[in-house]
Structure formats: structure tokens, C-alpha cells
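Summarise this fold before class:
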Amino acid sequence: VVEARSFCGLPVEYRPRFVAQALASLCEASAAHAAVAWESPLPAVLSGLLSGSLPNDTESNHQFGSPDVVEMADRCRAALLSRCKRGVEAPKEAEATLRAAPGAPKGTFE
């Protein structure tokens, strides 16, 4: 679907920011979802986005005043780490990876 940019013959607009934003909202709202997210590849993907080793989608979003995937990754990281403070168990390596990743530039996500 993503590679072909179509689904059942209809065009698809895929932006990584949409996925990151949905995951951030889930992790903010649900401890159960955050616990599952810690056990997935998500912490490594977030770290890759925040460190710049994975591509950003700034040009697709900022022209409309929307945050980009790095800003959403930072929000998702904050949600996961805040869940750790509230009792969600995280693998030590995954937690250390997220804590060590640089944050989105100040003022980019309000």
C-alpha cells in the first residue's frame, strides 16, 4: 500500500507523522498500549527518528503548520518515558536508548 501509493485503485497519502501521532496518542492514553509498545521495535524506531538516522517528513507537514515525524516521535518518547514513571515496566536497553536519543528542537511542538 505505501510503496504503490494506492489502495484498491484509490490514491493514498501516507505520512510517517500520522503513524507517529497515532502511536503517541495511544501511549499517552493507555498504559496497556505503552507496555506493548516497549516490547516492540518502536523505541529503536523513535530513537532513529530523533537522532536523524531515519528520514523526516518536514516538507510534507510544515507547509500546513503541522508537526513533522520527529516532533511526533519526541511526543511518543515522552509518553513512553512518563509511563515508566507510573509503573509500566520497560526493557532497560530500550529505555536507555530512548533516554539517550536527542530531543526535537525546542519550540517545534507546542
